[in-house]
Design brief:
signal; disordered N terminus; Alpha-D-Glucose-1,6-Bisphosphate, Chain A, domain 4; Polyketide_cyclase/dehydratase; alpha+beta; START-like_dom_sf; about 30% helix; SRPBCC family protein
Length: about 180
Amino acid sequence: MRVHLAALAVACTTLFACPATAHGPTPQKAELRTTIAASPDAVWKLAGDFAGIGAWHPLVRAVKATGGNAPGAERTLVLEKGEITDGLDTYDAATRSLSWRLNTENAEALPVSFYTTTLTVSGAGAGSAVVWNARFYRGDTSNFPPDELNDEAAVAAMTAFFEAGLEGLKAKVEGK
């Protein structure tokens, strides 16, 4: 009986110790804000068009979209290193907010494996405030991802994508 209990104790320790030492990816976050010298309605006219991101985001080379601004709509963004596909989750013109998620990943084009993101336009003095935030996972979700697909690469890529987009939106709306 002692041998069986000792073997059981070793087996249990081994079984439960492995998950404690393993880890997967943790969700990362990015949030950027900008102010635009235009009314929220003028900014929303561009930013609120789910299929229209190519008109103001300089990193988006082309957009193929279906479904308009209805939840469930999809768009494929053509980026420098490939395509990714987003699906629209929510669209609320009254609060000037839309949220979408990555449906089809391409870690070469954008080194993340999944994201959910929200873009919101609100009034800010005589202009507008635009907030773009996301929660996402790195491009390689294994325990030891290569540098180009790790958490830091994912944060850097999402931040750069948001920065370029917000700068492009601001320039387009302000006519610069």
